[in-house]
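Tokens as discussed.
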């Protein structure tokens, strides 16, 4: 039976069986020559999957994940239903996280070679999977040849970085809450994050030209876009400038120049920015130069609503976000929602291991318009709390931690049930729940592109919203609680999709079992 037929039948048995079928199609990809053919976009879910390569799959036995490991699991990602991959930094770097780059044009030798990366691009595109890579433009590594040369005041690279002068407040606090200035050889340089990450000076035209050259280089390789790290901090250096409109204007002006440079290679490049602002109004200006920005305020609200089993204004926030972004961009479906990423405690840990709450958070995320992002291992319920290395632990593929392909660079969790092997054969697993929800998006276009209108229920345990686009009109309802709930929806004719048995529409009244989701047509 096809997935389209299963959508029409809407039975729970088929929901579980199809999810199991999708998740079990896991195999290594066959190597092929690199090419620059872009990924296809037909019937996509518009879901992105964030991968920390070091923790993904080890194919050469050194305990460290590699690019060939990403290629080997493309069929897993295809079966999951994702449309794209975000690779955390893959450039050479002295750190394990990679956000201090020493060569913007190279591949971290621990991850493989440029040939390995080109093979990954080709194989991903064959499967209709796009790839974006982390672009760390705010700062370089202090071990980058640029910075080493910059230590000589006579070097042209000296002006690529920001140095103190007699009027500098050397006690200033950076926008990230850390000391802004760092002493080296009797002088001080700006490093908003740490001293190991000196900030580049984007008032220098040479720096701008080089960053555009770097972006175009990777697009010409066939990369489909970028996740731009710390994008607001290109000019937001100091805590005192947090709400400075001139700083915002300079950030936007630079990003517009960067976008124009990328458009010369690929006008469809997807460029999503890390902008940690608290509201849709403060995120919206970045939509002019960027394709999207991550929705940090929404992530907090989704997790809080799932944990508390209460709407608590979530529906109003969703409507406000859609209205604000539509006013800025002229269309819906531009948000980049997510639950957590490599800088935050994992969702399952935030929800204290409650599997029902985890499922509801996922159900809300994956029935929202836009292009949602999933952090690797989220779909099997991996846990992790800061410090950062503990939220970037090895992906668990097998019940046994010493099975071939498992990364061992750092100790991971020891629960065999939290593994792909354990969950792919269980129709009720979290993995198969994620798989089914992601495939919903491939079939109902309003789940990806719809204009969102909150649907008032007067029941704090329910979240409901309409999604409308040119070809589909649906009402999405979530019962966040552990008790059955009922609602009388307007104009709903039938249940199109359901996450649990027992969802039923009788005499105009919708019955929702505990912790369930329904999509009505």
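Sequence:
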């Amino acid at each position: 039976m096809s997935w389209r037929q299963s959508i029409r039948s809407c039975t729970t048995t088929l929901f579980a069986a199809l999810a199991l079928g999708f998740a079990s199609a896991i195999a290594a990809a066959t190597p092929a020559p690199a090419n620059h053919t872009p990924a296809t976009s037909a019937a996509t879910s518009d879901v992105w999957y964030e991968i920390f390569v070091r923790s993904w799959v080890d194919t050469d036995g050194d305990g460290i994940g590699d690019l060939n490991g990403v290629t080997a699991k493309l069929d897993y990602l295809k079966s999951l239903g994702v449309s794209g991959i975000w690779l955390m930094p893959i450039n050479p770097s002295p750190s394990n996280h990679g956000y201090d780059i020493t060569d913007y044009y190279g591949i971290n030798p621990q991850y493989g070679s440029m040939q390995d990366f080109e093979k990954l691009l080709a194989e991903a595109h064959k499967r209709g999977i796009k790839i974006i890579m982390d672009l760390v433009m705010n700062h370089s590594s202090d071990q980058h040849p640029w910075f080493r040369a910059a230590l000589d005041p006579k070097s042209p690279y000296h002006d690529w970085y920001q140095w103190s002068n007699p009027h500098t407040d050397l006690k200033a606090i950076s926008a990230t809450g850390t000391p802004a200035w760092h002493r080296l050889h009797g002088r001080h340089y700006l490093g908003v994050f740490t001293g190991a990450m000196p900030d580049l000076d984007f008032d220098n035209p040479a720096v701008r030209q080089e960053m555009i050259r770097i972006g175009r280089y990777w697009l010409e390789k066939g990369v489909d876009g970028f996740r731009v790290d710390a994008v607001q901090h290109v000019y937001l250096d100091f805590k005192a400038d947090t709400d400075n409109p001139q700083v915002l204007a300079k950030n936007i002006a630079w990003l517009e120049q960067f976008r124009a440079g990328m458009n010369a290679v690929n006008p469809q490049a997807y460029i999503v920015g890390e902008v940690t602002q608290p509201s849709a109004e403060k995120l919206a200006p970045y939509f002019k130069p960027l394709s999207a920005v991550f929705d940090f305020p929404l992530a907090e609200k989704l997790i809080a609503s799932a944990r508390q089993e209460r709407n608590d204004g979530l529906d109003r926030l969703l409507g406000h976000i859609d209205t604000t972004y539509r006013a800025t961009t002229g269309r819906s479906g531009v948000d980049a929602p997510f639950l957590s990423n490599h800088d935050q405690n994992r969702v399952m840990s935030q929800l204290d291991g409650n599997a029902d709450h985890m499922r509801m958070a996922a159900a809300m995320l994956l029935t929202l318009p836009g292009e949602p992002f999933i952090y690797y291992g989220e779909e099997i319920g991996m846990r992790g709390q800061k410090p950062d290395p503990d939220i970037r632990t090895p992906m668990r593929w097998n019940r046994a931690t010493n099975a071939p392909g498992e990364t061992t660079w750092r100790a991971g969790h020891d629960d065999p049930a939290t593994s792909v092997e354990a969950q792919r054969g269980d129709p009720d697993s979290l993995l198969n729940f994620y798989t089914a929800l992601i495939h919903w998006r491939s079939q109902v276009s309003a789940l990806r592109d719809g204009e969102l209108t909150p649907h008032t229920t007067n029941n704090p345990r329910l979240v409901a919203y309409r999604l409308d686009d040119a070809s589909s009109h649906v009402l999405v309802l979530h019962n966040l609680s552990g008790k059955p709930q009922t609602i009388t929806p307007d104009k709903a004719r039938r249940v199109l999709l359901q996450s649990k048995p027992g969802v039923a529409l009788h005499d105009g009244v919708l019955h929702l079992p505990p912790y369930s989701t329904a999509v009505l047509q």
